[in-house]
């Protein structure tokens, strides 16, 4: 339990706004213009607008460039929060200028801001997204008898009400024929509290957003019950600004977006180094950060406001309305790509139309002696003590590489055979299908339910232990 508490203690960091700067954008010392940025260091698919961007100093560098044009000086204050709700509260009070948060909090931010002409906010960019919804998951204790969402009937589930993790729980339960209002009790808890409750046995399951599911599974404190990718509902995080600040300081907003582009470019080109930077800044294991933010990671990092993501926000509104946290929101007035369009360049429309992960696994698979070309099968092995990862053309090739190492690797990442969700190989459910093509007969699944569905629809297929899969690869 002490490891969960140690992680939880890191989520309480709050940098106080300097004295004399009670309203964001005002000057603290009469010389430097203040810019206040709210972010969530542990929500690691916002790192390009938060943790990584801050650690690399990209925003400060861009403001220095801006200062040479305007003759002004700028000072940045960073505020780290557990969730998006306090960032929204501070934005409504005029005390945070730029923030980043998930899809549900973004909609709540928009609705609250639109209640007053002075507090309007704008969604100006995306940080990370998953087009199938795999950034949210449901986990249970390792020895839990719960094998499916139907098994949660009569039990208690922890989630953060109004979050995307809550939305996943409700929608997935309904899809499985379970009534989330009658069949199980929902406990409204912050992620770290829910993690402790799961470990103590106070709740039967935890439904949360990154990085909690991956962290608990990696540590052996949980196993995946439901892969959010099975729901097929896109989820995203984004960058939001106060409209008045953007009107008065559009050049600063554009400098921030240039810095976010800098951070995204670095993450795409140096995914392992970026994961290590985020791990160092947050205290999260680098293996967990890399699961989500690495090459072919669960999160795709792309600033563009894609139609599929706008549609997902539109589809989220009825759920948030039904649970009473949202009354009215004008999504068209909230989404604004004008600042991004001003800094992005000629490829904006092309990239807006694409959902291909720019951070691909590439190279030559040494275990199978072939190039890595199919992102739906591409896997990755991180040897113990290794400074680099090894690409694998398929999950089976990844298993062969593990066997060839002769020592337990630091981590192995493989995509779920049906949802594509990247997961830890040793925490996956493996199925042997003798009728599958050569080299693809060992198939990983992130959750038992997707493995069971595959076995039921493929005669002759059977679940095998991970160690056996490695030996027989």
UniProtKB/TrEMBL annotation:
Q: Entry's InterPro entries? A: SsuA/THI5
Could you list this entry's UniProt keywords, alphabetically sorted.
Signal
SUPFAM superfamilies referenced in this protein's UniProt entry, alphabetically = Periplasmic binding protein-like II
Specify the SsuA/THI5-like domain's residue ranges.
122-273
Stretch forming the signal peptide: 1-24
| PANTHER family tied to this protein | ABC TRANSPORTER SUBSTRATE-BINDING PROTEIN, ALIPHATIC SULFONATES-BINDING PROTEIN-RELATED
The molecule here is called: Putative nitrate ABC transporter, periplasmic protein
**What is the species listed in this Swiss-Prot or TrEMBL entry?**
Phytohabitans houttuyneae
Q: What is the lineage of its organism?
A: Bacteria, Bacillati, Actinomycetota, Actinomycetes, Micromonosporales
């Amino acid at each position: 339990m002490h490891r969960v508490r140690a992680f939880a203690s890191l989520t309480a960091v709050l940098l106080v706004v300097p004295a004399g700067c009670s309203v964001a954008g005002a000057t603290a010392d009469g010389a430097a213009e203040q810019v206040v940025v709210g972010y969530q260091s542990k929500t690691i698919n916002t790192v390009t607008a938060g943790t990584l961007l801050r650690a690399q100093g990209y925003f400060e560098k861009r403001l220095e460039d801006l200062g040479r044009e305007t003759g002004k000086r700028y000072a940045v204050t960073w505020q780290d929060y557990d969730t998006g709700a306090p960032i929204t509260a501070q934005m409504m009070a005029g005390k945070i200028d730029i923030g980043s948060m998930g899809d549900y909090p973004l909609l709540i931010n928009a609705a609250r801001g639109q209640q007053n002409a002075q507090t309007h906010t704008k969604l100006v960019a995306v940080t990370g997204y998953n087009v199938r919804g795999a950034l949210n998951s449901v986990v249970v204790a390792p020895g839990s008898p719960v094998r499916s969402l139907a098994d949660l009937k009569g039990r208690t589930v922890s989630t953060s009400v109004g979050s995307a993790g809550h939305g996943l729980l409700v929608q997935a339960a309904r899809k499985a024929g379970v009534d989330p209002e009658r069949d199980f009790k929902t406990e409204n808890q912050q992620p770290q509290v829910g993690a402790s409750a799961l470990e103590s046995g106070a709740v039967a399951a935890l439904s949360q957003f990154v990085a909690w599911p991956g962290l608990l599974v990696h540590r052996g404190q949980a196993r995946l019950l439901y892969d959010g990718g099975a729901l097929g509902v896109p989820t995203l995080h984004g960058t939001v600004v106060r409209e008045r600040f953007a009107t008065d300081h559009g050049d600063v907003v554009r400098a921030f977006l240039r810095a976010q582009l800098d951070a995204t470019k670095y993450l795409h080109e140096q995914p392992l180094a970026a994961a290590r930077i985020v791990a160092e800044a947050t205290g999260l294991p680098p293996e967990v950060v890399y699961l989500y933010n690495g090459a072919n990671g669960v999160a795709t990092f792309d600033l563009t406001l894609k139609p599929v993501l706008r549609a997902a926000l539109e589809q989220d509104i009825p759920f948030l309305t039904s649970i009473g946290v949202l009354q009215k929101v004008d999504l068209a007035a909230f989404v604004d790509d004008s600042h991004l369009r001003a800094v992005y360049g000629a490829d904006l429309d092309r990239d807006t139309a694409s959902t291909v992960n720019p951070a691909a696994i590439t190279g030559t698979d040494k275990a199978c002696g072939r190039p890595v070309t199919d992102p739906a099968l591409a896997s990755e092995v991180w040897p113990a003590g290794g400074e680099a990862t090894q690409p694998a053309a398929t999950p089976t090739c990844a298993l062969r590489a593990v066997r060839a190492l002769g020592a337990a690797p630091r981590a192995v990442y493989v995509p779920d055979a049906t949802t594509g969700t990247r997961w830890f190989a040793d925490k996956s459910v493996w199925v042997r299908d003798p009728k599958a093509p050569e080299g693809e007969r060992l198939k990983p699944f992130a959750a038992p339910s997707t493995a069971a569905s595959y076995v039921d629809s493929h005669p002759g297929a059977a679940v095998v232990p991970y160690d056996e899969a490695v030996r027989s690869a």
